[in-house]
Amino acid sequence: MKKLIALALALVMVLSLGCVAFAAEDAEAEEAEAAEDAEAEEEEEPIIVHDGPEAADEGKVLNIYAWNEEFKGFFDKYYKVPDGVTVNWIITPSDNGAYQQKLDEALLGQESAADDEKVDLFLAEADYILKYTDSDYTQDITAMGVDNFDNAYTYTVQAASDADGVVKGVSFQCCPAAMIYRRSIAKDVLGTDDPAEVQEAVSDWDKFEAVAAQAKDKGYYMTASFASTYRVFSNNVTSPWVDADNNLQFDPQIESWIAQTESFVQNGYTLPTCPGIWDDEANAQMFADGKTMCWFGPAWYFNFNMGNAQDPENGCFGDWAICQGPQAHFWGGTWLLAPAGTDNPTLVADIMNAFINDEDVCAQLIKNEAQFTNNKAVNEAIAEDPDYKNDFLGGQNDVAMFVGMADNIKFENQTIYDQLLNEGLQNNLQDYFKSLGGGEGVDKDTALQNFYNYVNETYPSVITPAA
Amino acid sequence: MKETRTLTKRKGISYAKWGYIFIIPFFVVYICCSLVPQLMTFYYSFFENYRDGLKQVGPNFVGFKNYVTLFSPDNTGNIGILKYFGNTVILWVLGAVPQLVIALLLAVFFTSTRLNIRGQGFFKAVIYMPNLIMAAAFSMLFFTLFSTVGPVNQLLQSSGLADKTIDFFGRTFTVRGMIALMNFLMWFGNTTILLMAGIMGIDQALFESARLDGASAWKVFAKITVPLLMPIMVYVVITAMIGGLQMFDVPQVLTNGNGAPNRTSMTMVMYLNNFLTTSKNYGMAGAVSMVLFIVSGVLGLVVYRTLSKQYKQ
C-alpha cells in the first residue's frame, strides 16, 4: 500500500511539474517572438517621436485607464512626456465589463481623489462610449485646445460627442472592417486570390454562403467561430438594442446573424465547437495548417489578433488579402476621452492632437503598426503611394482599400448597454448552436431565456420580453 | 481594622471580568465586520437600489418585491434560484464525498502504528500543496489543459483515443466533473490533516486493547476510530458544507462567469455576483444573500443534529 501511494503521489507531482514546464515554455517562446519583432522594426527608419509640452503648474502624474496594452505600445513609442511627468497605466481587461467597473469606480470618486490619483485620460470602445460622453464625467475637449477635426472621419467625432454635440474625445483609429481571407485557400476554392475577383464571389450573403458550400467540399471551413460574422451584422443594425421604453428588442440584422449561424453550424461551414471570435480554437485556425478561409476585421485586427498568422514558424505571413466582403461595416476603435477634473489638461490635449493631427505620428502608425489612422490626409497620401505595400497581405495596399470604405461608416443606434448585450447574446446562444453541431446543448427558447435572465441580472432597467 | 479591610478586599478580587475583557476584541471585530454588514444586507434586500450606467437608481423601499422576483418562474417555467441552489449542492456533493472518504483513509493510514509510514512530513506537505495554489490559477490551468486546442485534446487525438475534438466545456458532466475534481484536489489534504489530529486525540490504549482482544483492522476502524472521531467529523462536514454553499472562484473562472453549459454550473454565489458586477444591484444581491444565509443555517443545524445524535449514543 505504501509503495502504491508513494507511486501515485510521485505521478501527480511529475504531471504537475510537466504542466508548469509546458506553460513556461509557451511564455518563453512568446517573449522570444516579441523580441524578434522589436528587432525587425528597429532596423527600419528612425522613429519620429512627438514631444509633449512642458506645463509647470500642472500635475506630475498622468493616470491613463485602458483595457489592453495596444495604445500603450503606440504611446510609449511615439510620444514623449515632458521630463518629471510619470505615466501611470491602469489596465483592466474588458471581459464581462470588468474594465467599465474599474473605470466607473474611479470616475465616481474623481472629485474626492487626490490630484495624483485622478483619472487624466481614459480609453473607451464604441460599444459603451455613449455611457461616458453622455455624462458629466467627461469634458469638452475643444475648450482644452483640441479643435481641429478637419482630417478626422466624421463618425469618430460624432461617436465622441454628447447629445448636444459637445466633443468629449478623439479616436486615433478609423475602423472600416474588411473580409480578410487566406490567399492559398481562396485559390483552391475559387481559382483566384485577386481581391477584386474574390469580392465579386462574396459580394452578398447568399453568394457568401454559396462559397461556403464550395469551401466545405474542398475540406475547408468558411469561418472559424459562431461569432465570426456577428460584428458585420451588429454594426449595421437599424434599431438600438433597447427602445425608448427600455424594452429589449432584436434588430432584423441580429436575427439574420442567428439564422446564418444556424445554417453554418448545421452545414459544417464553421467549427462546431468554437463560439467566440477570440477563442484559442479560432485563433489556432490562423496557423499555416488552419482550414479556415474568411475572417472579418479592420486594420487593427492584423496585429492585435492575428499573431498566429504572423508566427515565423507555424504562421502564414503574406498568405492573406482583404476585400470589402458581403456587407460594409466597421468594428471597434479606441477613443481617448478627457475626464472632468484632470490635473494635466495641457498634456492630455496635446496627446489627443498628436494622435490625430501629427502627420509623422499617424504615418508611422500605418507603416510600422499596420493601423488605419483617423487622419484623412495621411491615409490618402499613403493610399496613393506606389511604394507602400503591406507585406502581411502579400503586398496589397490595404490603406487604399480602407480609404474607399471609411467615408461610409455610420455610427448609429448605440446604447450604453451594447458591450454586455453583444457579449451576452453570443455567450448564451452558444449552447443552442453547439446542439445544432451535434454537441450537448439546449433548444433555442431555453438559450434565449438564458440570455434574458442574463440581461435581467446585468441591467435591471432593461425589460425583457414576457412569455 | 485596617487589616480586616484589606482582607475582605482581597477576598472580593475576581478575575472573571478579565475573561470578558480578553474576548472584547473578537466581539468588536465580529460586530463591525460581520454582524453590521449582515444586518445592512438584510435591510437593503427590501430596496430597489442599483446603478444604470453611471446613474444611481434608488434606494427606494419595495417591500418583498426582490424576494418575489427571485422565486418567480421565467418564461420557460424555471425558477432560477432553485436551479442554482441545486447546482451548488450537486457540485459540492460530487467534490465532498470523495474528499471525505479519501481523507479518512489517508488519515487512518498515516496514524496507524502498524503501517508506520515513514517520511510522513513529506507526504503531508505534498497532499496539502494543491491548497496553496490560488483557486483562480488552478482553474485557469484546467481551462488551458482541457480547452478544445489544449494538451488533453491533443493527447487524446494523437493517441487515437478520440477521433475528433472533445468539447469538455460544452458538456454538463465534464464541466461539473472538473469543478468537483478541483475542489477535491484542493481540499482533501486539509481534511486529512484535520482528521489525523482527531484520530491522534483518541487514546492509543483503546486501539491496543482492541488489538489484544483480537479485533480486526476493520472492526477497530468501525467501532473505535469512527465513533470517537465524530466530533471532529461534524466540524469538518459543517465547515466543508458552508464552504461548498459559497462555492464561487473555481466555477466562475473555469466557465468565465457563464456557468456554461445552460447555466448548469452556475452556483448561488455566482448568481449573486451577476447582480453586483455591472449594476451594483444591492437589492437583489441582498435578497440572494439572505436566502443563502437561511439555507446555510438550516442545513448546518440538520447536519449537526443528525451526526451528533449518532455519537452521543
What can you tell me about this protein's structure?
The complex is a heterodimer of chains A (about 475) and B (about 325). Chain A is of the alpha/beta class and about 475 residues long. Chain A is about 45% helix and about 10% strand. Chain A contains 18 helices and eleven strands. Chain A has helices at about 1-40, 70-80, 100-110, 130-135, 155-160, 185-190, 195-200, 205-215, 230-235, 250-265, 280-285, 300-305, 345-355, 360-370, 375-385, 400-405, 420-435, 445-460; strands at about 50, 60-65, 80, 85-90, 120-125, 170, 175-180, 295, 320-325, 330, 335. Chain A has a five-stranded mixed sheet with strand order 4-2-5-11-6. Chain A starts with a helix and ends in a 9-residue tail after the last helix. The model of chain A is unreliable at about 15-25 and about 40 (pLDDT under 50). With about 325 residues, chain B is mainly alpha-helical. Chain B has 13 helices and two strands, in the order H-H-E-E-H-H-H-H-H-H-H-H-H-H-H. Chain B has helices spanning about 1-10, 15-45, 65-70, 80-110, 120-130, 135-145, 150-160, 170-200, 205-210, 215-245, 250-255, 270-275, 280-310, and strands spanning about 45-50, 55-60. A two-stranded antiparallel sheet of chain B has the order 1-2. In chain B, a hairpin with a 2-residue loop joins strand 1 (about 45-50) and strand 2. In chain B, helix 4 (about 80-110) crosses helix 8. The longest helix of chain B is centred in the N-terminal third of the chain and has 32 residues, at about 80-110. Chain B is globular, with a radius of gyration of 26 Å. The model of chain B has no long low-confidence stretch (mean pLDDT about 85).
